[in-house]
Amino acid sequence: MKKTCVVTGGSSGIGLSIVKLFEQNNYHVFNLDLAPSPDGEFCHCDVTDVNQVSNIINNIAQQQTIDVLVSNAGIHFSANIENTSEDDFDKVFNINVKGAYAAVKAVLPSMKANNNGAIILMSSDQALIAKNNSFAYNLSKAALASMAKTTALDYAEFNIRANAVCPGTIETPLYHQAINNYCEKSGADKTEIHQEEASLQPLNRLGQPEEVAELVLFLASDKAKFITGSLQVIDGGYTAQ
Hints:
Blueprint: E1 3-8, H1 13-24, E2 27-33, E3 41-44, H2 50-63, E4 68-71, H3 86-114, E5 117-122, H4 135-155, E6 160-167, H5 173-186, H6 190-199, H7 209-220, E7 231-234
Parallel strand pairs: 1-2, 1-4, 2-3, 4-5, 5-6, 6-7
Helix pairs in contact: 1-7, 2-3, 3-4
């Protein structure tokens, strides 16, 4: 019998790799996103709308037990605190943090009823370290790390595990968008910037979305049934420096 996995933001990048890998491993995957995708069962969803997230997940839970949640939806934003407007701040937190809050809160009744569940929040290496011009994004990813820890403690009695995955620099459309934006503003050469980013990693390359997906699949599996409340770094050694 197939297990059920709900993924937010599963139509591109790391999320898409997660949807594909879970499907390959016999999961029934629901992808909550604004952009449609041929992979997974697509559910059009704005994760900043708590009621919408709740209604969609409740409908899924009425059909089947939800075994896994991967809260992956997020945006990147580069600016220091002075250059972060209130609207910028709200947008980052509404998607990155409130979206995760909505999804986690919505799956818990199904998981509690089943006395089992795995929640994986997509945080960042920036939950552990700071990076320049990353005030709101850094803050939002640290919040997700905290959410994983508190949820792990609050719901351990129901055999529900919660962990945060903390990727470093991963080659996704979001990464390329950030590089393009930087190059447009600075006039820098994209190829050179890309090579510089790779050279900053001790393994001398960028991570791939499929590698992050493999870690998420492991954390969702019974092989990780004694792992909860953890921050799982996958960054090529960057934060070890």
